[in-house]
């Protein structure tokens, strides 16, 4: 039985380390150039070296995206960049453009090449074409169904990577110009503003200024506002299909998001590994992935060719607010050193999510400012505080349930 790797997004150094600590087998990230997700932070070559060392110490891999479609004026900068990457030696390069692929074979010959989902691979011929050219792995388009996946697996030898969780595009595999046209920020260069999720009206040509709403209900219409993908319930199907890598979307998402989603999928995979013949999906993992900001989940194109839109609002939903991360725990004093990310106050009921361990709950009884040892009644983002609690692991994350109105 082949257990797929769990592949997580890493928009910056903190998210990269968080993903690995919480159980990712591999992470993907962008360099400062040519890597999409322009606003995600991104890594210098020195930072790629640093995270590679950290990842390898934890038996994890690092893939670097070079998946833009470069225009002619940029193409001459690529050989140098690829040569530098070849020296740093990430575990894979993720590429969409044929020109970059050709240059990578020449200038980064020591790095395995993966074909990005942006290349829209939806059939075995396309995958075999890339494999024959030298690609070791193909990331399937999100539009491939489970039935198609089974048929493709029988016809190809390349490794297959499948998106299992995260935001979906209403356009075919992200080939979309809405953001570029409306805001000047190009989705195919990593700068998408997700304006497909905004609220739209119709204007008749001869009546400028008269915006006619297209009602789905009284709240309005968000025809293009896709739900978020979640396949955590279908780990046996994904393993049965011989998938090599399960990919979580979201280099723009927070470290808390990455930790929560990685931890949930890690648990589902490990549960399956422990007992493949009698595996029961742990339904509490659906509650876990609901604790991060998301749109309502659905299974995307996995079971049928049907897009799912969330017509009620462009707002995300979540059941919990992330309030802080534990950097250290002092056993002698029972104090956790917490970097605060959102308001937390004495008296709050807090859930503690730990890497590779059960959640705990506790009431905050005391908070001490690390800066001056002053007692605090509440703390806000960028405070460092000490909070008494039972033993917890470093990297644990604190969250508070959002009271429904
Ligand atoms: S605007 Fe929407 S459909 Fe277009 S690339 Fe961005 S997320 Fe995808």
Molecular structure report:
The chain is 25% helix and 22% strand. Strands 1-2-3-4-5-6-7-11 form an 8-stranded parallel beta barrel, surrounded by 5 helices. The protein has a 7-stranded antiparallel sheet with strand order 17-16-21-13-14-20-18, covered by helices on one side. A two-stranded antiparallel ribbon has the order 8-9. It has 2 domains: 5-172 and 228-296, TIM Barrel; 320-401, Elongation Factor Tu (Ef-tu), domain 3, CATH 2.40.30. Helix 3 (78-88) crosses helix 4 (98-107). The N and C termini lie far apart (47 Å). The protein has 405 residues and is α/β, with parallel strands linked by helices. Iron/sulfur cluster (SF4) is lined by residues 169-171, 174, 176, 178-179, 187, 192, 194-196. Iron/sulfur cluster is lined by residues 169-171, 174, 176, 178-179, 187, 192, 194-196.
Quick description:
By secondary structure, the chain is of the alpha/beta class. The protein is built from 10 helices and 21 strands. Helix 1 runs parallel beside helix 9 (255-274).
| CA distance, first residue to last residue | 47 Å
| Largest sheet entry | 8 strands, parallel, barrel
**Number of domains as seen in the coordinates:** 2
- Calculate the mean pLDDT score and round it: 91
Shape: globular
Low-confidence stretches: none
Give the CATH level 1 class of the largest domain.
Alpha Beta
In CATH, the architecture of the largest domain is Alpha-Beta Barrel
Which structural category do the helix and sheet elements fall into?
alpha/beta
Small-molecule binders: iron/sulfur cluster
How helix-rich are the residues, as a percent range? 10-25%
CA-atom Rg in angstroms = 22 Å
**The CATH superfamily title of the largest domain:** Aldolase class I
Strand content: 15-25%
